[in-house]
Amino acid sequence: MPMPVQPDNRADSAKATLAALAFSIVFTAAPSFGAPLPLATDADFAAVAARMKTYSAASRVRWAISARTRGEANAAVARLGFQFDPSDRFLLARANAYSFDETPGLETAPSDPIASMSPLVGQAASGQACSWQVWVTDPAFPSAGDNPVSVPLAPFDKLPVSAAATFRVGHAGLLQSHLYAFDETKPGAIRDLATASNVNISVAGGPEDEILVLASSRGAAPYFESVKKGLAGSNGERRDLGRKLALRDNLLGAGRGIGANIQPVGPNMVVARNEAGAKPPTAPTEAVADGGALIETCQYTLIPDTRVSQ
Most buried residue, 74, 88, 168, 190, by CB count within 10 Å? Predict the structure, then answer.
């Protein structure tokens, strides 16, 4: 009597295995960035304090400490304070307590308190203003919602970013001004942000800091015009223009090449007129005579955050 043929389930088993594997890949390979930071253990509080210190030079970064009630959130903020040295305790003022119901974007409330990043919107109470606006969006920022967090920068801010970050540049000053928007990695490696193909500009993503230099001028500024000319046709791509036109050397004090071409001033400051009988300014007057005196310059620095880029 012939033996009954058993069905070959290997194909079905293989399909099931592949399906399980695919399911596993979706949920294990999905980026873990953007998740809020837990605040359950002493190690968690130490990690959040360290993260806050990482962004200490970005003055408009704020932190939402969220819990089931506002009282529990305030208790979490107080506990977080024990993680800071006296020199870092100013960062505690950047932490705000919220209940889970008050936390923007939070749909599912966890059991323990959490920390997420949030922007300080509007003009800061102190610090220098600037008619240029820079907003940075980074999926590595801890987010309470489903979307990456965007934060604004103030002049001279230094913000750690991952290689996936992007930034937007806008200007709300005088329309008749000459506008110059550049960034630079190593000295002389510059790109013209005004000619970038996307509104959301990708960060350099390299090992060097990325310096954004945004300027407004009453007239055509010879130094910046030389940089623009050197980048003509680059379509927002970075070119090595050499030390002669390096923003770092000429604008940040390492050299004096800008002195003969333009009179640099602080952010949001107008070059003073030479009143009758007053002593001429020590800076070269050619810049004023040819209309190249700056109305304002604004500088920002994006720092590669190797901790979140790995």
Answer: 190
DSSP assignment letter at 94: G
Residue 238 sits in the same domain as residue 292: yes
pLDDT tens for 183-235 read: 999 999 999 999 998 999 999 988 999 999 999 998 899 999 999 999 999 99
User: Which burial class, exposed, middle or buried, applies to 96 when counting CB atoms under 10 A from its CB (0-12, 13-18, 19+)?
Assistant: middle
pLDDT digits (tens, 9 = 90+) for 251-288: 865 433 333 334 444 444 333 333 344 333 333 333 33
User: Containing H/E element for 123?
Assistant: none
> What residues have CB less than 8 Å from 59, skipping those under 6 apart?
120, 124, 127, 154, 157
Residues 95 and 117 in one domain: yes
Let me know whether 217 and 253 are in one domain: yes
